[in-house]
Amino acid sequence: MTKQGLKMPDNFLWGGAVAAHQLEGGWQEGGKGVSIADVMLAGKNGVPRVVTDGVLPDGNYPNHRGIDFYHTYADDFKLFKEMGMKAFRTSIAWTRIFPNGDETEPNEEGLQFYDDMFDALIENGIEPVITLSHFEMPYHLVTEYGGWRNRKLIDFFVRFAEVVFDRYKNKVKYWMTFNEINNQTSWKDPHPMLQNSALKDYSEDEAQELMYLASHHEMVASALATKVAHEINPEMQVGCMIAMNPVYPASSNPKDILFAERAMQTRYYWGDVQANGKYPNWLLKMWEHKGFNIGVTEEDKEILAKYTCDYIGFSYYMSWTVSDTGDEWLEYDETTNHGDNPFLKQSDWGWQIDPVGLRYAMNWMWDRWQKPQFIVENGFGAYDKKDENGEVHDDYRISYFQNHISEMEKAVVLDGVELYGYCPWGVIDLVSASTGEMAKRYGFIYVDLDDMGEGSGERSKKDSFNWYQKLVKSDGVDL
Ligand code: BGP
């Protein structure tokens, strides 16, 4: 079932992606503090995960154990090398460096852990690509300061960024500040970064205002971190990170078109601010209309304009389809306004599979932001089953990748979009971010653990492992 792909540039970074809290485990080792991921229970049967008010004695906290990568990374990297990976995207757990987030001095043991990890990567010829905050932050910053709604968080984050930029300045070139910074639009179903079981007590408008406030603080922090990175090492590339889901109109009715366009504006204004350096007018108007007070100062505006991101990191899993709701100010919420797209199939979790949407999105972003791009997540979550020989034949995953990579190659080779690399998500099976399950698997490498963390933890190659190895070796030609 080999397909013919287009040859990608020689220096293209074929990689793989994960995030610290979804695989490291070792949640209390090396002086690590409690992160917001550590207080999240697993979801069950499609019921979303719950953010608790602290660690309970007998909960099922999947992030506490991950896949024990804290202890196994050296061996896992050997498999990555065998697969031909040239880049590995992971995140630094903020709580390993600043256990509570508001200390002045970092935790040396945590710094050393990542020093060793980056050395091991480099020894295997793999380039680290590092996210500073991948859906996690010290829990203490939430209980003590209220999370990102508090402006003080800017200083804590910039200090964290400065410490790690300085420490790893000769090891890490590619950085990202906040993972999927735009995955906060669903303010009714609060995002953990805002800490927010608490937001349930607010009216919708109040919760929405807090979302814009928290996001503003994150974007100022991100811009300041970019400034610091360039002062420490001008070679460093600091990207924003956007969850990219193109939003299509359900019909050619002009009202649907306008609505879908507004949904795109609403969902991607973070990119406008981080890449173009200013808030779009429609949003300023909306704040004015709703009486929101986001407290954007003149100094903030200067910072945002001056220290824009170097590249657009993004994840891509699916597209969405919407119809007009008649709402002028767009109470757009990705959980309620979506319809099925009759042209697309869905994964077992209802994610609509849309390879062409990737090419569309890359062109859309290129035209709008004019920055190089980096696909730092793309992949297919599935219930993998081992056969009687203990093998996983994941042809459905291979076909998902063939179709998406083919469109990515067209965007680069035929359309001229500049792209640093491609890091498929969950290159090794790990804990799902949205459900806390192990059963939603993405990897080319199978990990023998179930939802309760039971199992040997043994790693084995799925069919997709060999497929990806061939693809990388051929620079994208042997699809
Ligand atoms: C993205 C997150 C990842 C990741 C992925 C897959 O939104 O950045 O952390 O987990 O989605 O999502 P899930 O694990 O919920 O299937």
Description:
The protein has helices at 20-23, 69-83, 94-97, 108-123, 139-145, 152-167, 204-232, 254-276, 281-290, 298-306, 355-369, 395-414, 463-473, and strands at 13-17, 87-91, 127-133, 174-178, 237-244, 247-249, 311-316, 320-322, 338-339, 345-346, 352-353, 373-377, 419-422, 445-447, 459-461. The chain has 13 helices and 15 strands. The strands form four sheets. The chain has an eight-stranded parallel β-barrel, surrounded by four helices. It has a three-stranded mixed beta sheet with strand order 6-8-9, with helices on one face. A two-stranded antiparallel sheet has the order 10-11. Helix 12 (395-414) links the parallel strand 12 and strand 13. The chain is of the alpha/beta class. It has a single domain (13-473), classed as Alpha-Beta Barrel (TIM Barrel). Bound molecules: 6-O-phosphono-beta-D-galactopyranose (BGP). 6-O-phosphono-beta-D-galactopyranose binds next to loops.
